[in-house]
Design a protein that fits this description.
The chain is an alpha/beta fold. The chain contains eight helices and twelve strands. The protein binds zinc ion.
């Protein structure tokens, strides 16, 4: 039977940025402020717990000029989840801000697209696309693969009833999105297939688009997988924290519930 999940966005980082940073080809109002938030996500049913992405480490964030707020594992602990106990981690793609703290989840199976692993060990890494990857973080995934802890996905896969992943590509060779069943219907975690609401609403790909046509097709996939536009959750938009409610007053500004309909 299809399981019903509680879904959380947990903010772990933030940086100042401009509109011109976020749209392929720039923006007419490029100097205007448009900050970026950094999230990991948690999906929990009565039977399953999935962590989606693992953020960046303090060291890498600091080196790359991304202020670091908390270790993603500490954010999960605020929701009663111990990283050590987590059995399943979905990695939407291998950029440093999505794979960074995978070492905090030593007992988890890592669910990743086969195409993403090929991407980071192939000729794309001779191009500036390499910039968003950390070599030792890729090494960690290869090590986990050799240890039998990686599930290589080719396209779409249901990981549990009511929880599936889907390759969309575009941003990187193997970017995937998550579709999860909740009380308000099918929610889609777009991750970096759409950093901001404005990317998918206006059909304007983010500035980092390995295959721009696939980035455009990814927007279509988001709409096809989600029950409505209100069920699509972008990967880096500070507005997510405004639109959804915190699960408790203490978590205000850090965590929101995505399985409860947005306030606006
Ligand atoms: Zn990202």
């Amino acid at each position: 039977m299809t399981e019903t999940y509680r879904v959380y966005a947990i903010k772990y980082g933030h940086r100042e940025a401009k509109r011109g940073d976020h749209f392929l080809g720039g923006d007419p109002d490029g100097e205007r402020s448009m900050p970026m938030d950094y999230f990991v996500w948690l999906a929990q049913s009565d039977e399953h717990t999935f962590v989606i992405d693992t953020g960046y480490t303090e060291e890498v964030g600091t080196r790359r000029g991304r202020p670091w707020l908390r270790q993603p594992a500490d954010g999960l602990r605020m929701l009663g989840v111990e990283a050590n106990d987590v059995q399943d981690v979905v990695i939407t793609h291998l950029h440093f801000d999505h794979i960074g703290t995978i070492q905090d989840f030593p007992n988890a199976k890592i669910h990743i697209q086969e195409k993403e692993l090929q991407f980071v060990v192939g000729p794309a890494m001779f191009t500036p696309a390499k910039h968003s990857f950390e070599t030792d973080e890729i090494d960690r995934v290869v090590t986990a693969l050799h240890e039998g802890r990686v599930n290589l996905i080719d396209g779409s896969q249901e990981l549990a009833p009511g929880f599936s992943v889907h390759h969309v590509g575009g941003h990187t060779g193997g970017t995937q999105v998550v579709r999860v069943h909740t009380e308000r219907g099918w929610v889609v975690l777009a991750s970096d297939s759409s950093h901001y609401y404005e990317n998918f609403e206006k059909k304007r790909p983010f500035s980092i688009a390995w295959e721009p046509e696939r980035s455009l097709a990814a927007f279509k996939a988001l709409y096809a997988l989600a029950d409505s536009e209100q069920h699509i959750v972008p990967g880096h938009d500070p507005m997510v924290l405004d639109r959804y409610a915190a699960p408790s007053p203490e978590l205000e500004g850090i965590v929101v519930r995505l399985d409860v309909a947005p306030k606006q």
